[in-house]
Specification:
The complex is a heterodimer of chains A (about 425) and B (about 300). Chain A is of the alpha/beta class and about 425 residues long. Chain A has eleven helices and 18 strands. Chain A has a six-stranded mixed beta sheet, with helices on both faces. Chain A has a five-stranded mixed beta sheet with strand order 12-18-17-14-15. In chain A, helix 5 packs across helix 6, helix 5 crosses helix 7 and helix 7 runs parallel beside helix 8. The termini of chain A are far apart. The longest helix of chain B has 28 residues. Helix content of chain B is about 65%, strand content about 0%. The chains are: A alpha/beta (about 425), B mainly alpha (about 300). Strand 4 of chain A pairs antiparallel with strand 2 of chain B.
Chain lengths: ~425, ~300
C-alpha cells in the first residue's frame, strides 16, 4: 500500500452569519469553545428530535463543510468535484492552512504549495522579473531555486520581451501566463490547485494542463485539484471526491464521480418528471422525459449525442384543436430553441384523438453549446388558451468531454466547416 | 486507512497544539510512516484555541519571504515619483527646518547643541516610529487578498511594512552626519550605541504596529484612530522639546511609553546630553514586554484573519 499523504478526518467548518456580536468578533465567530460546544449540543438535540433545525440557528450558523473525511495517497491526483458553494474552496483553504477548521483534523505529509489564485501578491508596479521572484517567494520557493528556474519560467510564460516592463502594462493574458508559469515550476510534494485554469487563452490553458500532467505523472507528486472543467478532471485525475452541500457524497474513480456529478444535475430526477392527472383539464402533460439515445432517462449528454425529449400527453377533448410546444432555455434564461407540434407533419397534428399520446422531439448532436439547459412545456387548446404548462420541468447538460476545455462560448455548439488554402507561400 | 485506524489516530493524546509542524523525528513514530518520507515535515491542521507559541522554525525557513516583502515595498515606494528616494530625506529635513524656525521664537531651552541638531536627533527615531507603526497597522487590511489566498507566517506582513522605514532611518543618519559636520559639532563617543537604540526603536514600532494590525482586521475603527494616535504621540514624545521641560516626577510614568526614553536616549548618545538611565530602562523593558504581548496577541488572533479580512 502506498503511503497516505493527505489524511482528512472529519473536517467541519462553520461560519456565523448575520450580525456578529462584538465579543465574538475578536476571536472569530465560531472559534470559541463555548460556541463549538453549543453547536454540538444543538446538533445532538436535532438528532434526537428529528431533522428540523430551529429557525434561529439556521440563520446564524452555516456549515460550509460537514464531516469531510478522505485520504490521498502518494502520487495520486484527486479531483474535487461539486457545484458552486459545495465547499470545495473552503476545503482547499483549510488544507492550505489559510483558514482553520472548526472541527476535525487533517494531516499533510510533505511540503505543500497551494495555488488558489494565479499571481497572488503580484505587484502592478514591479516588472515581470521582479514579480517572478516575489510571487515565487510567496508560493514558498527559495531564492536560489527561482534563480535556477528563471529562464525556464520566462520561456514557459512566453513574455521574454516584456520581462522588465511593469506588469501593470501587461495584457490580462500575459499577466496570467506569467503568474501560472511561476506556479507551474513549484516543486512541492503536495500541490493544491483551485480553479485557476479557467483564465487565460485556450492554447495556454492546454499548455498548463500539459504541464500539470507532467507534474502529476513525473515524480510521484500528489495533487488535489478543483475544476468545473469535466474534460480536464477526466484527463488529469485518478480519483474524484464529490462534495455536495459541504459533505462528501462519493469517492471513487474520477469518471464515475464525474458521471454522478453530471447526473445529479439541478434536481435528482430532472431527467423524468410525471404530473398527476387532472380530469378537469381537456388535455394535459402526463410526463416529460429526457432520454438518451438508448432510451434510458438521463440528464447528462455528450455534445455529440442526440437529446430526446419525450412528451406524454393525455387528451380528453379535442375541441378546437390541441396545440403544444416546448422551449429550451439556457441558464441565462435565453430561449435557445422553440419547437411546437407544427414541426410534426400537420396531418397528424390535426388528427389527434382523445387518449394517451407520446411525442418525441430530438435535439440533434452538435447543435447547442456545452452547458446546462432547462425545458419548458406548454399545451393549449385553440380558442381556449393555455390549459397546461410546466416551466423548467426538466433539465439536461451537454458536455464536451472530448476536448479538454469544456467550453465553447456562444449559444450554438455546431462545428463549422473551415476551409483553408495557401494564397502565397513565403518560401516560394 | 480503516475506521479503527482513524479512531486510533484521533484518540492518541493529541499533540500540543503548539507544534503544527512536527519534526520528521516525531513522524517516525507514526505507524504508517515509511522511510521515504523522512525529512519532509508533517503538517497537522486542527482547530486551536488560546495562546499559540511562535513558530520560529517556520519563520526561519521562510525568512527569504520577509526579505522579499521588504524589498517589494522599497521598490514600489518611490516608483513614478520625480524625486524618488529623495523623499526619504526631504521629510525629516523639512520637519527639522520648521521646528528650528519655531524654536527661535519659542526659546526652548535645548542644551549645548544647536537647536536643529537637537530636533533632528529626535526626528530620527520619530520618523521610523511615526511612519512604521501606522503602515504596519494597515498592512493586513491592505493585503487581505494575500491573506485569503496563500499561507505564510502572517507576522511577516506588519513586520515587513515597518522594516521598510529602516531605510529612511539610514538615510537620516547619513544626513545627520553631514549636519554634524556643517555645524562643526563633535558627537559624543556614546554614538556607538546608536545601533542598539535603532533596534529598540524598531521593537517599539513593531509592538504597536503588530497589535494594531491584528486589531484593525477585526475593528476597522483603528483605521481612523491611527492617524489621530500619531498626532497625539507627537506631542507626548519629546521630539521637538527636551524631556527635562517635564517635571522629573512624571518621567518614570511617561517612560512607560517606550518612545519617551528612546528619543531622549538618542540625544544622549549622539549629542552627549546627560543620560536618564532610569527612564531608558523603564522604556526598554516596556518596549520588550509590549513586543512580546503584541506577538502573542497576533498569534492568538491570526487564525481568524482569513475569515475576517
Amino acid at each position: 500500500m502506498s503511503q497516505t499523504i493527505i489524511d482528512c478526518a472529519q473536517i467541519s467548518k462553520s461560519y456565523k452569519l448575520g450580525a456578529r456580536r462584538a465579543k465574538n468578533v475578536q476571536m472569530g465567530a465560531a472559534f470559541t469553545m463555548r460556541d463549538t460546544f453549543s453547536d454540538l449540543m444543538g446538533s445532538a438535540r436535532r438528532m434526537i428530535r428529528g431533522k428540523t433545525r430551529p429557525k434561529r440557528e439556521q440563520d446564524d450558523v452555516f456549515w460550509a463543510l460537514n464531516d469531510v473525511s478522505f485520504e490521498v495517497k502518494r502520487g495520486e491526483v484527486v479531483g474535487l468535484i461539486g457545484r458552486n458553494g459545495a465547499g470545495k474552496s473552503t476545503l482547499l483553504k483549510i488544507l492550505s492552512r489559510i483558514v482553520e477548521p472548526t472541527k476535525g483534523k487533517a494531516r499533510l505529509r510533505g511540503r505543500v504549495a497551494s495555488l488558489l489564485e494565479v499571481g497572488t501578491g503580484f505587484h502592478p508596479e514591479l516588472s515581470g522579473r521582479e514579480n517572478i521572484y516575489l510571487n515565487g517567494a510567496i508560493l514558498g520557493m527559495r531564492r536560489a531555486e527561482i534563480d535556477r528556474k528563471l529562464d525556464e519560467i520566462v520561456a514557459f510564460s512566453e513574455i521574454e520581451r516584456f520581462l522588465d516592463t511593469p506588469v501593470k502594462r501587461y495584457s490580462s493574458g500575459m499577466y496570467v501566463r506569467l503568474a501560472f508559469a511561476v506556479a507551474a515550476h513549484l516543486e512541492p510534494e503536495i500541490l493544491i490547485v483551485d480553479e485557476v485554469l479557467a483564465v487565460g487563452d485556450y492554447a495556454f490553458q492546454k499548455k498548463c494542463l500539459g504541464k500539470m500532467h507532467d507534474v502529476a505523472s513525473g515524480d510521484g507528486r500528489t495533487i488535489l485539484f478543483v475544476s468545473h472543467n469535466m474534460g480536464a478532471l477526466n484527463q488529469l485525475c485518478d480519483r474524484g471526491v464529490l462534495l455536495e452541500n459541504g459533505s462528501v457524497t462519493m469517492i471513487g474513480p474520477v469518471d464515475e464521480v464525474v458521471n454522478r456529478y453530471l447526473k445529479s444535475g439541478l434536481g435528482q430526477n430532472s431527467a423524468m418528471v410525471e404530473f398527476p392527472e387532472d380530469p378537469s383539464k381537456p388535455c394535459q402533460f402526463v410526463s416529460v422525459e429526457i432520454l438518451h439515445e438508448d432510451g434510458s432517462p438521463t440528464t447528462d449528454f455528450s455534445c455529440d449525442e442526440p437529446v430526446r425529449i419525450r412528451l406524454r400527453m393525455r387528451i380528453r377533448e379535442v375541441g378546437g384543436g390541441v396545440f403544444m410546444s416546448l422551449q429550451v432555455l439556457n441558464l441565462d434564461g435565453v430561449r435557445v430553441l422553440n419547437s411546437d407540434i407544427r414541426d410534426l407533419n400537420t396531418s397528424t397534428a390535426e388528427a389527434l384523438r382523445p387518449g394517451l399520446h407520446a411525442f418525441d422531439v430530438v435535439i440533434p448532436p452538435r447543435l447547442l453549446s456545452p452547458t446546462t439547459y432547462l425545458v419548458n412545456v406548454v399545451c393549449s387548446i385553440h380558442f381556449a388558451g393555455v390549459v397546461d404548462q410546466h416551466e423548467s420541468c426538466c433539465e439536461f447538460t451537454l458536455s464536451d468531454v472530448e476536448t479538454p476545455i469544456n467550453q465553447r462560448p456562444g449559444v450554438l455548439g455546431a462545428r463549422l466547416p473551415w476551409g483553408h488554402r495557401i494564397e502565397a507561400d513565403q518560401l516560394g | 486507512m480503516t475506521e479503527t485506524d482513524m479512531i486510533n489516530t484521533l484518540d492518541k493524546p493529541s499533540r500540543s497544539s503548539l507544534d503544527r509542524v512536527v519534526s520528521s523525528h516525531a513522524l517516525g513514530l507514526e505507524p504508517r510512516a515509511d522511510g521515504a518520507n523522512q525529512g519532509s515535515p508533517e503538517i497537522v491542521i486542527e482547530p486551536r484555541s488560546g495562546w499559540i507559541a511562535i513558530d520560529w522554525r517556520e519563520m526561519y525557513t521562510q525568512r527569504e519571504l520577509l526579505f522579499f516583502l521588504v524589498w517589494r515595498d522599497i521598490q514600489v515606494r518611490y516608483k513614478q515619483t520625480v524625486l524618488g528616494s529623495a523623499w526619504a530625506v526631504i521629510q525629516p529635513l523639512m520637519l527639522m527646518l520648521i521646528f528650528s524656525f519655531l524654536g527661535r521664537f519659542a526659546r526652548i531651552e535645548h542644551g549645548s547643541a544647536p537647536f536643529s541638531l537637537f530636533v533632528f536627533a529626535g526626528l530620527i527615531p520619530w520618523t521610523l516610529f511615526s511612519q512604521g507603526f501606522p503602515q504596519a497597522a494597515l498592512s493586513l487590511v491592505n493585503q487581505q487578498n494575500m491573506l485569503s489566498k496563500v499561507y505564510f507566517p502572517r507576522l511577516f506582513v506588519p513586520v515587513a511594512c515597518a522594516c521598510v522605514f529602516l531605510v529612511d532611518l539610514l538615510y537620516s543618519l547619513v544626513i545627520y552626519g553631514f549636519l554634524l559636520l556643517a555645524y562643526g559639532y563633535t558627537p559624543a563617543w556614546t554614538v556607538i550605541f546608536v545601533p542598539f537604540l535603532v533596534v529598540l526603536t524598531l521593537i517599539a514600532t513593531l509592538s504597536l504596529g503588530i497589535t494594531l494590525a491584528a486589531l484593525t482586521v477585526f475593528y476597522r475603527d483603528f483605521r481612523h484612530l491611527v492617524p489621530f494616535m500619531v498626532q497625539i504621540l507627537m506631542y507626548v514624545i519629546p521630539v521637538f522639546y527636551p524631556a527635562w521641560l517635564i517635571p522629573e516626577k512624571y518621567h518614570s510614568v511617561l517612560a512607560l511609553n517606550p518612545m519617551f526614553g528612546i528619543v531622549t536616549a538618542y540625544r544622549s548618545a549622539i549629542l552627549g546630553y546627560p543620560w536618564d538611565f532610569q527612564c531608558l530602562l523603564i522604556s526598554s523593558v516596556s518596549a520588550v514586554l509590549t513586543f512580546v504581548f503584541a506577538i502573542f496577541y497576533f498569534r492568538r488572533t491570526e487564525r481568524a484573519f482569513a475569515d475576517f479580512a
